[in-house]
Amino acid sequence: MSSSKGASTVNALWFVFRRLARDRSALLGLLLIALLVACAVLAPALATHPDDVFELHPAERLRAPSGVHWLGTDRMGADVYSRLLFGARITIVIGLIAVGASLVIGVPIGLVAGYYHGWLSDLLMRTSDIFLAVPQVVLAIAIAQTLGPSLPNVILALSVTYWPWFARVVYAETRALQKEIFVESTAALGASPWRLTVLHVLPNIASPIIVRASIGMGFTILTAAALGFLGLGPPPPTPEWGRTIAESREFLPDAWWYAAAPGLAIFLTVMGFNLLGDGLRDVLDPRLRRSRTARDG
Amino acid sequence: MAELLAVRGLRVDYATDQGPAQVLDAINLDVGRGEVVGLVGESGCGKTTLARAILGVLPEGAARIRAGEVRFKSVDLLKEDPAVVNDRVRGRAITFIPQDPFTSFSPVFPVGTQIMDLMKWKSPRVPRGRGPAPLVGRYPRARWRDDREAVLEILRAVQIPDPARALRRLPHEFSGGQRQRLMIAMALLPQPDLIIADEPTTALDVTIQAQILRLLRALVKERGVSVLFTTHDLGTAHEICDRVVVMYAGQEMEAAPTDAFFGRPAHPYTRRLLASVPSPGGEIRDIPGEVPSLVSPPPGCRFHPRCDYASVECRDARPQLRTLATGHDVRCHHPVDAPAEVER
């Protein structure tokens, strides 16, 4: 029983991957993310000057890209390329933890609000509406500013401001699902609310949650870069991309590589997650899939 | 025929913006053991509400049961402890076949997983009195094997090809007709006394409908299971039922054995209903007037504003149910063609 279950999960993943591979933009997104992950994991091996994250070489400051410094050097004489690779680690950590925490907060809140009808549901959804009414960046700035610039505080600010997106998605899907006969019948047969939501509702709404999480990664990374740019991110000498762009401003346009490298990295990362999210939505959402085949045929 | 289910004087209101709507107005219904009863009526006449009231799954908040009893095996389900009803009756002694076979399975699990999940809690081999299903629970190995055998056997009975493979397939890999066969299988699996089928073939092709109806009738007759079958299609009722009950605006108007019902309809509404069935070449004849508002229903007989035979009496006095010599139970002051009436 368990082995066949494992096989079917692998089959399902393989199916999703094959569909994604046929969608050129989703495949590009997947490749960009794979590149990001490879950079982050292999940073010490790929970096030409791995010590430059912390070491200063004032004599070599602001060198243009060359054979020694592939993407030039910054105002401290550190290798921009090497710092970029280590910055990928911070980016991934921020994205994963912030989106993970938002999932942990938002999904249960959405499920509870969707399952129960009444004041509790209203309370939860109006609370999330309050968060959604303020732009995420503004709210995150306020929180990060209050708590002080550090990596955990950035993650906290992003989690606290992103969970309402998950709550909304999960709430809407749960409500829609409640009208389905199989959910109604399961409830009528006396399944507990726990059993109903965890074993029957949650598996049915996994696709929109996965899609939202992928798009959320891009969103969160962009906001994290904005916070870093405003000096609310992890303090120097952390090679955070947003902060690097902020540092480079006074040397523009002469030291163009200084800003262009992290800027391009942020752009490609966010684009990767968005393309993957769109691709996943096409593959996983049966409603869209159906309308697609209708159009094709 | 021995009594299995007896609904007596059941009143159900729905809260609406205009006030309470009397969706069921002192309705009576009988289903004998092994009997297939058709509940016929136009959309909105209350047949689904009646089916739901018997199952005890009226929409929470909106619906209110005002009066009456739902007697099942001599126990009033409305007064019985809900936990006991849930444990012994719902999903065991009374099962349900839904209208729409497309949303009746969860799209993300193989049908076998879903059928076995039902069997885990509602298999006839599970002892009564265990309470509601917990989040996770062990499925004893030996019982699982027996239950699976029973599942495969019933899938063969509903003519699902290659049952063992079918269990591993996802719901969307089945056609609508096959999914409805699976639903019938699931309704039979707990070995119920009564199956409530809410328009089970409405969503299917006409040719498939006939197949499924014949199959359902054969299966329940073989097992001695009673069926309460709601439909708006008189042809369907004729095909499958032993007895037919006609509902109009929340009341039963006429009940009779199928042959008598179609052969000598006694209630003017039934006659109009039968006449309005379109036939090839014939013109379509509808019933003049409109279905009455359930918030402020007409006084007296609820059908009188649309009735050809209506008299002053019909407007003033509500007709009582009476039994005619032909075996019709009819709620009408002027039953058509009325033979001598017998006292109830």
Question: How would you describe this structure to a colleague?
Answer:
The complex is a heterodimer of chains A (297) and B (344). Chain A contains 13 helices and no strands. Chain A has helices at 2-22, 24-41, 43-46, 80-115, 119-133, 136-147, 151-178, 181-188, 193-204, 206-229, 241-248, 256-284, 286-296. In chain A, helix 4 runs antiparallel to helix 5 (119-133). The longest helix of chain A has 36 residues, at 80-115. Chain A is elongated and about 75 Å long. Residues 288-297 of chain A have low confidence and may be disordered. The longest helix of chain B is centred in the middle third of the chain and has 18 residues, at 206-223. Chain B folds into 2 domains: 1-93 and 193-290, Rossmann fold, CATH 3.40.50; 108-191, no CATH class. Helix content of chain B is 31%, strand content 24%. With 344 residues, chain B is of the alpha/beta class. Chain B has a 9-stranded mixed β-sheet with strand order 6-7-8-3-9-10-12-11-13, sandwiched between helices. Chain B has a 4-stranded antiparallel β-sheet with strand order 2-1-4-5, covered by helices on one side. Chains A and B meet through helix 8 and helix 9 of A and helix 3 of B.
Task: Looking at this protein, list some descriptive labels.
heterodimer; A: 297 residues; mainly alpha; MetI-like fold; 13 helices; 76% helix; elongated; disordered C terminus; B: 344 residues; alpha/beta; Rossmann fold; 9-stranded mixed sheet; 4-stranded antiparallel sheet; 13 strands; 24% strand
How would you summarize what this structure contains?
With 297 residues, chain A is mainly α. Chain A has 13 helices and no strands. The C terminus of chain A is likely disordered.
Helix-strand blueprint:
The complex is a heterodimer of chains A (297) and B (344).
Chain A: H1 2-22, H2 24-41, H3 43-46, H4 80-115, H5 119-133, H6 136-147, H7 151-178, H8 181-188, H9 193-204, H10 206-229, H11 241-248, H12 256-284, H13 286-296
Helix pairs in contact in A: 2-4, 2-12, 4-5, 4-7, 4-10, 4-12, 5-7, 6-7, 7-10, 10-11, 10-12, 11-12
Chain B: E1 3-16, E2 19-32, E3 36-40, H1 47-55, E4 63-72, E5 75-76, H2 82-89, E6 94-97, H3 111-122, H4 141-157, H5 163-166, H6 176-188, E7 194-198, H7 206-223, E8 226-231, H8 234-240, E9 243-248, E10 251-257, H9 258-263, H10 268-275, H11 312-316, E11 321-324, E12 329-331, E13 341-342
Parallel strand pairs in B: 3-8, 3-9, 6-7, 7-8
Antiparallel strand pairs in B: 1-2, 1-4, 4-5, 9-10, 10-12, 11-12, 11-13
